[in-house]
Amino acid sequence: MMTRLFNKQNVFLFLLIMMVVLARFFPFLESYNRYFNLSGFIDWGIAGIFLLYGLKLNLKEVVKDIANWKLHLLIQSGTFILFPLLALLFYPLVKDSQYTTVWLSVYFMACLPSTVSSSVVMVSIARGNVTSAIFNASVSGLIGIVMTPLLMSFFLIPAEGSGDQGAIIQQLLIKVLLPIVLGILLNPVFKR
């Protein structure tokens, strides 16, 4: 009974709930940055997670998987065409009503790229193709830099000077793609 209660998934869920409870009682305050640089820690943590994912990948698998363009086209089409269209179907029902803002929020969520961490975690749990998940989520993030503002521009007027897309691309490259590539390259060294 105890071993079933403390398997990997239950421990992760328990720790996740514990963190939410701790955050409730000890919320982050800007003054904490004097003692501990949380944003820097988060950046290193993100890079570390993707380095570990890269270490799990095999270079031959990655090259073979990138050639599966039909799968990638299907995933990206679902993310940036199907989901926004599904949300758009409900626009005539809420147009000029008090629910327009709620619909706009749902539409915004439908226009966002998939998150790398969620995609990879869900595919890992389902024992699916993690290589494809990492590749498509990374590509989705890059495409989303252009597509999300484009899809939202039909309903919102962009604020002046909003969104430094060069900085966003740089962050994606440094925090996600570089650690994955480094992990793939270091894979043969650590497999010995």
From TrEMBL:
Taxonomic superkingdom: Bacteria
Membrane-crossing residue ranges in chain numbering: 12-29, 41-59, 71-94, 106-126, 133-156, 168-190
Keywords for the protein's UniProt record, in alphabetical order: Membrane, Transmembrane, Transmembrane helix
Protein name: Na+-dependent transporter
Origin species: Chryseobacterium camelliae
